[in-house]
Specification:
This protein is an alpha/beta fold and 433 residues long. The chain contains 16 helices and 14 strands. The structure holds pyridoxal-5'-phosphate (PLP). Pyridoxal-5'-phosphate binds next to helix 5.
């Protein structure tokens, strides 16, 4: 920090410098916003501090993994201790078994797990596994669903892809997505029709149980149960991508929260305690098809690395100890308060969310957002202006209409109250604009 000050580096000129060495000046597209993103100096608890000396209450929280907030001391201590024993072995180690057992005990649909390094890797492997198991090529995904940045799922993809207007990335060969079918979220009939039309050709349906990358958009009514029923009846695997919802909505993720089982489960983010991780889990008969026990190849130098596994184990231990009740209560309070403020201030918009995930949408006539098309109909430019107004007041929301806000264990009553006050103060300037 001191060195930066001496060189008079602030976010603006760091971004200028970064843009000389990295495309768009960032390591992941969703971090970029105009005129320039703030550069972080440090983060602790519910707060993130930029190099310009400003402090923010953080609701972006690195896009989901930091359920305990920044720099949790217990996780830090566990990682420090692990570092004394080494940080990468390239061999099996005992803590992998411990984390596997924790996951399996919380997710009854999971008998075996494969640890990888990111959610993207896990979905890529999951789709390959489903195709290998069913010996079919087609998959169905949800419009606006985001499962990482690999070829087969970069079609109408949410997150940074939608934010930056490239949901269908160039550079993806047409052949790579020819087998990716799309249906809208919250529309069981569309799924049923697509599976009927492609009967015998579809290996799996991959779905975020709560759309997190254009939302959050929760499943309506009985949607997930319908999806489960339709996939079972069509003899198609159901892959639930719980990279965001896993260990957040409940210890058993959306599967516990909504009472639905997957054939394959994808985890990431929280399960690595803020360090890189992805997990593919599922029924034994399917999972045993992964190399070396079966013929679906998957491998990785850093997979199962002891630091991520240690941080994940400690994080889950803390969630088990503390429970998710307070987090969900804060989420509900935030949603109710923002809804009321919208009404009182006469601003067209709505609030969407579940558990500790929430988001304000500037939707036409305040219409509820149920799927990707609804999310796209919202005023994303107004959201960006709103994002900046919140940032100026010390509240860091995700810099996109299409990303979820998260709450952590480190957020306090006072943080929530302060945030609601700032929403109230700022939203009144957004009427009709
Ligand atoms: C639902 C979902 N799946 C997969 C991914 C990809 O995970 P990662 O960024 O760890 O590759 C993300 C990332 O945000 C996600 O939200």
């Amino acid at each position: 920090m001191k060195v930066i000050e001496e060189r008079k580096m602030n976010s603006e000129n760091l971004f200028e410098l970064a843009s000389k060495y990295m495309p768009g000046g960032v390591s992941s597209p969703v971090r970029a916003y105009k005129p320039y993103p703030f550069f972080t100096a440090s983060a602790k608890g519910s707060r993130i501090y930029d190099v310009d000396g400003r402090e923010y209450i953080d609701y972006c929280l690195a896009y989901g993994p930091l359920v305990l907030g920044h720099g949790n001391e217990e996780v830090k201590e566990a990682v420090r201790e692990q570092l004394e024993h080494g940080w990468l072995y390239g061999t099996p180690h005992e803590k992998e078994i411990e984390l596997a057992k924790k996951i399996i005990s919380n997710y009854p649909s999971v008998d075996l797990v494969r640890f990888v390094n990111t959610g993207s890797e896990a979905t890529m492997a999951g789709i390959r596994l489903a195709r290998g198991f069913k010996e079919r090529d087609k998959i169905v995904k949800i419009e606006g669903g985001f499962h990482g940045a690999h070829d087969g799922v970069l079609v109408k993809a949410g997150s940074g892809a939608t934010t930056h207007g490239i949901p269908d990335s160039i550079g993806v060969p047409a052949d790579s997505v020819i087998n990716t079918l799309q249906v809208p979220f919250n529309d069981p009939e569309a799924l049923n029709n697509t599976l009927e039309k492609n009967s015998g050709d579809v290996a799996a349906v991959i779905i975020e149980p709560v759309m997190g990358n254009v939302g959050p958009i929760p499943p309506q009514d009985n949607y997930l149960h319908e999806v489960r029923k339709i996939t079972s009846e069509s003899d198609v695997l159901l892959i639930l991508d719980e990279v965001i919802t896993g260990f957040r909505l409940a210890l058993g993720g959306a599967q516990e929260f909504y009472g639905v089982d997957a054939d394959l489960t994808i985890l990431g983010k929280i399960v690595g305690g803020g360090f890189p991780i992805g997990v593919l889990g599922g029924r034994k008969e399917i999972m045993e098809l992964i190399a070396p026990s079966g013929g679906v190849y998957q491998a990785g130098t850093f997979s199962g690395n002891p630091v991520s596994i240690t941080a994940g184990l400690k994080t889950i231990e803390i969630i088990e100890r503390e429970g998710l009740g307070k987090l969900n209560e804060f989420g509900a309070r935030m949603q109710t308060a923002i809804s009321e403020i919208l009404v009182d201030s006469g601003v067209e918009g709505c609030v969407s969310g579940v558990g500790s995930m929430f988001k304000i949408f500037f939707s036409p006539s305040g219409k509820e957002v149920r799927n990707y098309a609804d999310a796209l109909s919202c005023d994303k430019n107004k959201y960006l202006r709103f994002f900046h107004s919140m940032l100026s007041a010390g509240i860091f929301l995700p810099p996109s209409q299409f990303e979820t806000n998260f709450i952590s264990f480190a957020h306090t009553d006072a943080d929530i109250e302060r945030t609601i006050e700032v929403y109230k103060e700022n939203l009144k300037h957004f009427r009709g604009r």
